[in-house]
Write a structure and sequence with these properties.
alpha+beta; four-stranded mixed β-sheet; 5 helices; 4 strands; 44% helix
Length: 116
């Protein structure tokens, strides 16, 4: 059950897939992807903090490596306005409350399916 004081924020975080890292090094590219997660939180700062934790866990799952750190790589991230994103991307993004993890396996499969 959600807290009536919570607001839904659209958190966006950048990342690279293993293929993108390989291709970026091989061809001198700077290709990156991003993920959207809708987060119900008490404040934007709370949503940002939880979004960073989601991104951290996503990268560990994506690379099957607990040593990799999204936070150390310092990819871009932020709260986005839904009106600035494709409606289909927003509607299919996971919705979680502060402290709740989305289905990271689904997110990883989705990221890998879109990567070349």
């Amino acid at each position: 059950m959600s807290n009536p004081n919570e607001v839904e924020y659209l958190y966006c975080f950048g990342h690279e897939t293993p293929n993108q890292i390989r291709n970026n090094k091989l061809f001198g590219w700077d290709d990156q992807d991003c993920q959207l997660v809708r987060i119900r939180a008490g404040s934007e700062d709370e949503a940002m903090a939880w979004g960073c934790e989601i991104a951290e866990q996503f990268m560990k799952r994506l690379f099957k490596d607990d040593e990799i750190s999204w936070k150390k790589i310092k990819y871009g991230h932020g709260i986005e306005s839904p009106s600035e994103c494709l409606p289909a991307a927003v509607s299919r993004s996971p919705l979680v409350s502060f402290g709740e993890m989305p289905d990271l396996d689904w997110m990883v499969k989705d990221a890998l399916r879109q990567s070349f």
